[in-house]
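Sanity check

After download, print the first record. It should look like this:
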Amino acid sequence: MKRELKAALFDLDGVVFDTEPQYTQFWGAQCRHYHPEHPGLEHEIKGQTLTQIYDRWFSGDLESEQDIITQRLDDFEAQMDYIYIDGLESLLRQLHQQGVKTAVVTSSNQPKMQSVYRSHPEFQMLFDAILTSEDFAESKPSPDCYLKAAARFGAAPEECIVFEDSFNGLKSGRAAGMFVVGLGTTNSIESIKSLSDIQIKDYSDMNYERLYALLQKI
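Expected structure tokens:
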């Protein structure tokens, strides 16, 4: 019996937009300032939510700095370059033509999304739903966010494909019982193989037919 592809669920940074190098720049500056004893920390925290970063690295004596860092981050995100990953827009058009629902499922918050909308007024029309951190009780790697997105479309987990780049995001898609496509935009292809069903560098060779065929192999 063939599986129906009902929903394609996309993380935001490193999956929709090629923003990870910019975040590495921002967090590199913060980490060198507050944690000079831990070089390379900006690479370790990739894919974590702001709350997770604060709880682990900016609590205790540094808790008073959280509001300052948050303001710096808001200012940084307001002027970031939001560049689509190659091939994304073409893939979204194909999915919609085939009746597949699409959603952004991100740990980003609404203030961040307002910056995205200012940069890309068309963004909200590209997806059928946009779920942000305000919509979830638990952060990735919990499957909560992806299960909520599937439920919004009346889709079973096995009828969904997740696109992720971070370790926590990939684990979230796996925990939700969905087919996981890993993008090598944030971490190396080799490092995400164990957490994803297939790996791609961008969407230039990806289309509806290939995704549908992959889903049948589960």
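If your output differs, re-run the checksum step. Summary of this record's structure: The two ends are 12 Å apart (CA to CA).
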